[in-house]
Every structure is written in structure tokens, then in C-alpha cells.
Design brief:
The chain is of the alpha+beta class. The protein contains 14 helices and 14 strands. The chain has a 5-stranded mixed β-sheet with strand order 2-3-11-8-4, with helices on one face. A 3-stranded antiparallel β-sheet has the order 5-14-13.
Length: 387
């Protein structure tokens, strides 16, 4: 166990709001909620705190993901029906079958860089891994992955980071891209990928609309890669800050799954969610009104001492560890088993093949431009290849 040092240089621009009573920000008509149990309650009460109503979201210009229809922005009953269409593909048992392929991708990625004795964890490994896996699951060309990366950057970025025209252009491009894939499917139907499942699916006797299918594909493509990329990147930031944790993992790799849970809690890739208030209600006992917004802060709730003893301590042995990084209740992350599997296999293979991993401290860490996602652009490391 290591206490946080006052120098948090491994975590650039990471400032969780201290746990406190909910407070209201009038300019943005927005409640900030930091207590674990209140965050959990808000995510559970989907009647009062809706995931739909994306169109007036104060954090995003209208163009964000507005033209796509995806389950993350739906309430029941449609949410339940749509989620049910793909949930079979994401059960822990279905996902476990992917392990050999994930391991093969990890080895291939390391083969390209191992002789150099250095690599960028993000560009060389933690970006290409999940995007390759989800592209193969969807049945879309893995060769387009640099395009997917650009799209993801735009979708998760703060409004100020890219001009509005560029966002519009990218959303149109995504629409056209998947439109072609669906047309192609009609000409040559396939059987064994997620797009085929969606093309064949019916709800109440009707097939899904094209915007619904495209919404699903883009959600899986973006939610499915940028978050896992940052989970693996953030793991290396934690190991850099707490080298004795890394030493323990080298000595006993069976600790890796537990360590991943602690990285998820301590340095979560998703730092906050948002909900729209549909009826006057109380938040932390304070009066909130219909039409206002709530930010349930995951990164704060994950450090609530009422839920986690010594919450400010990075402890890879922590158990239980009921962090909220995959959300809670009906929108609980569909991809959690996949993200956990990818991170475990990735770390097992990296620690087996790369010894004496050290972050290259000559290159300053730079946080990615996003209000809701935490990660850094590059994590350069040096290592000694295992013989
Ligand atoms: C470390 C990696 C990941 C993190 C931290 C994460 C986090 C989250 C969170 C917090 C939510 C809930 C959003 C809300 O309540 O508004 C969510 C939902 C979702 N995630 Fe993930 N995610 C990760 C990886 C993945 C992967 C690998 C996939 C798929 C390939 C995925 C697909 C989804 C989908 C489809 C939803 C929407 C579920 C629903 O609305 O019912 N995620 N994720």
C-alpha cells in the first residue's frame, strides 16, 4: 500500500471534486453529485433522472451524437428491448471465447516494438487492441482503425476542441461509412457478426431502422475502444506513481484482475455521467427541479470514505471494490466483461514479455481533451525484453 504523494505528476490535470453535499451551478442549470450512495441512487432512478433528452444537453452542442439513436441515450421500455438484442454477445461466457484471439493480437502488437526496448503504451498497444477486437466483433474492416480513432477523438472531445463544422463533417462521415456497410450486407448477407445480428433483429415484429443500427455500431465502436485504451494507459500511470504495485504484479500475476479493479476505481477512464431531471425531486436532501441536469461524478464517488476505507490509497489488494466506473443499474456498461478481459490479457502478456518497465519521464504527460473521459495522449515506456 502506498499513500498518494503530494506530487501527482503521473496523473496530469486529475482533480476529483472532493466528496461533499450536492451543489448547484445556476449558469449551466446543473447539479454536481459526489457522494457514492447518491450517485448510485441517481443512476438507479431512471424515472426521475433520464438518459434521453440529449438534445438540450448543456455540455454538448446539438451535433454531438444527436443524429444517432443509441441505447446509452434511451430510457425504458425501448432501452430494455434494444439492449436485449446485443446483450447475448457480451455475456462473460460469450466474451471468454475471445481470449485466444485477444492474446494473439497482444503478441502481434508487441512483436512490432519489442526489439526497440521502448514503446508508446497508447499508440502501439492500448489503442490498436480494443479497436481491433470490436471491429472484428462488428464485422467491419480493421484496416480503417486510424479513421475510427479520429472519429472517437471528435465524439469524446470538449466542444471547444474542434470547430463545429468538423464535428458535423465527422458525424456525416460515420453515417455514410456505416450506410455503405449496411448496403453491402444486403448484397452479401453474413451470419456471424454483430452487424448481422442487428440486421436480422426484430422488435415488435419490425426490423430496426437504419439510424438505430448505425447508432448501435457507433456506440460500440467508440464506447468499446476509447475507454479500454485509457484503462490500460491509466494502469501504467498508476504503476508509474506506485512502483511497488508493479513489483507485486511481476512477482504474482494472479493479482492482475484485482489490480485492474483498483485502477478502475482510482483513476477511472470515465469520470462523470449526465442525467436530465424529469420531475421536481430531492438531491442530497436539496430541492432540484424538472429541466435541470445532474452530473453524477464517478471519480469522486469512487473516493468516498463512507464506501471505501482509505479511499485515497491505491491498494491493489482492495476487496470488496464496488467502484462505479462501469456505471450502475440499467445502463451498467454492456462491455464490462470485454474491457476486463482485454485489460487482464494485455497486462499478463506485457508483464510476462517486458521486464523493468519504466515510464520515459522526458516526455511530459498530456491529458486528452474531454470532460467525461480521463486518460493521456501518450505513455512512452522503456523496458528490457524477457528472454
Ligand atoms: C474500461 C472500459 C469501459 C468503461 C470504464 C466503460 C464505462 C461505461 C459506463 C460508465 C457506462 C454507463 C453510461 C451511463 O449510465 O450513462 C457504459 C455504458 C456502455 N458501455 Fe461501456 N465502458 C467501458 C468499455 C466498454 C466496452 C469495451 C464496450 C463494448 C464493446 C462498452 C459498451 C457500452 C455500451 C453499449 C453501453 C451502454 C449500455 C446501456 O446504455 O445500457 N463499454 N460504459
Amino acid at each position: 500500500m502506498t499513500l498518494i504523494s503530494s506530487d501527482i505528476s503521473s496523473f496530469p490535470d486529475f482533480h476529483p471534486i472532493p466528496v461533499q453535499d450536492a451543489f448547484y451551478e445556476p449558469q449551466r442549470t446543473l447539479w454536481h453529485v459526489t457522494r457514492y450512495h447518491e450517485v448510485q441512487r441517481i443512476l438507479t432512478d431512471y424515472h426521475a433522472f433520464s438518459s434521453a433528452h440529449r438534445e438540450h444537453n448543456p455540455f454538448r452542442r446539438q451535433v454531438a451524437m444527436g443524429q444517432f439513436i443509441s441505447i446509452i441515450g434511451m430510457d425504458p421500455p425501448r432501452h430494455r428491448q434494444m439492449r436485449g438484442l446485443v446483450s447475448q454477445a457480451f455475456t462473460p461466457r460469450a466474451i471468454a471465447r475471445l481470449e485466444p484471439r485477444i492474446a494473439q493480437i497482444c503478441h502481434e502488437l508487441l512483436e512490432r516494438v519489442i526489439v526497440n526496448g521502448r514503446m508508446d503504451v497508447i499508440d502501439d498497444f492500448s489503442y490498436p487492441l480494443p479497436v481491433t477486437v470490436i471491429a472484428e466483433m462488428l464485422g467491419i474492416p480493421v484496416g480503417d482503425r486510424s479513421t475510427f480513432r479520429y472519429w472517437s477523438n471528435i465524439v469524446i472531445a470538449e466542444d471547444e476542441a474542434y470547430p463545429e463544422d468538423e464535428r458535423k463533417r465527422v458525424l456525416d462521415e460515420m453515417h455514410t461509412y456505416f450506410g455503405h456497410i449496411l448496403e453491402q450486407w444486403h448484397k452479401e448477407p453474413k451470419e456471424d457478426d454483430l452487424i448481422s445480428d442487428l440486421m436480422k433483429a426484430e422488435l415488435d415484429g419490425e426490423q430496426l431502422s437504419v439510424p438505430e443500427i448505425i447508432g448501435f455500431c457507433t456506440l460500440l465502436l467508440i464506447a468499446g475502444n476509447i475507454t479500454t485504451t485509457n484503462l490500460i494507459g491509466n494502469a501504467f500511470l498508476c504503476f508509474d506513481e506506485y512502483p511497488d504495485a508493479l513489483a507485486q504484479l511481476y512477482a504474482d500475476p494472479s493479482l492482475i484482475p484485482n489490480a485492474i479493479e483498483e485502477v478502475l476505481r482510482f483513476l477511472p477512464p470515465v469520470i462523470a455521467l449526465s442525467r436530465y431531471i424529469t420531475a421536481d425531486t430531492k438531491i442530497d436532501g436539496k430541492q432540484a427541479q424538472e429541466g435541470q441536469w445532474v452530473l453524477p461524478w464517478i471519480q469522486s464517488a469512487n473516493r468516498d470514505e463512507e464506501q471505501f476505507a482509505d479511499a485515497q490509497v491505491f491498494d491493489i489488494h482492495r476487496n470488496p471494490n464496488r467502484h462505479l466506473t462501469f456505471g450502475h443499474s440499467i445502463h451498467f456498461c454492456l462491455g464490462a466483461p470485454l474491457a476486463r478481459l482485454e485489460a487482464r490479457v494485455a497486462l499478463e502478456i506485457m508483464l510476462a514479455r517486458l521486464k523493468e518497465i519504466k515510464r520515459d519521464r522526458f516526455m511530459p504527460l498530456e491529458r486528452i481533451a474531454s470532460q467525461f473521459i480521463y486518460g493521456v495522449k501518450h505513455v512512452p515506456i522503456a523496458f528490457t525484453p524477457a528472454v
